[in-house]
Amino acid sequence: MPPLPQEDPSASVPVALDQMVFSPLAGQIGSSLGSDFVIAEWRDRGTPPGPPVFIAPVHLHHHDDEAWYVLEGALAFRLGHEQVEAAAGTLVFAPHGVAHTFWNPRPEPARYLLIMTPNIRRLIDDLHATTDHSPETIAVIYQQHDSALVSEDAE
To answer: Greatest CA span in the chain, whole angstroms?
Structure first.
């Protein structure tokens, strides 16, 4: 490998290597403190035939965008009033203000990257940390992160 050009060391922000390299990413969330985006690689085991089993409830983010890149299998998305199935190799983008949810529409596992803002990561962390899964508590957690649950009827 050719040597890297020398940079002015005063222009570099010291960040630990384990905050910049995530190998393997599987099951981890990759970002460094102060980063503007976060990437997570996650899996969904698949669902039996029947109505969708949402991975997240229908919601929107007032100021944060979110994207998914399907690595294996497929994910289905509701974006506003539209529904789409995304096979491996597909990127799906949910801009702020668009109600959305997603699920694995197939019985086979799906593996995907979730690209999000630090605020969305904190939202997900708080949702995973709560032991109170009442609709009221979940709604408050979304509100605390500048997001909102959206009634399926309101779409």
So the answer is: 59
Query: Is the CB of residue 147 less than 8 Å from the CB of residue 99?
Result: no
pTM here is: 0.80
Burial (Cβ within 10 Å: 0-12, 13-18, ≥19) of residue 138: middle
Q: What is the DSSP letter of 13?
A: P
Q: What is the rounded average pLDDT of the residues 38-67?
A: 94
The half-sphere exposure of 58 on its side-chain side, counting CA atoms within 13 A, is 15
Give all domains of the chain, ordered by start, each with its CATH number: 25-117 (2.60.120.10)
Whether pLDDT at 27 is above 80: no
SS3 of residue 141 by DSSP: helix
CA distances, 152 to each of 12, 15, 28, 42 (Å): 47, 43, 31, 25
Mean pLDDT of the chain: 86
Q: What would you report as the CA-atom Rg of the chain, rounded to the nearest whole angstrom? A: 18
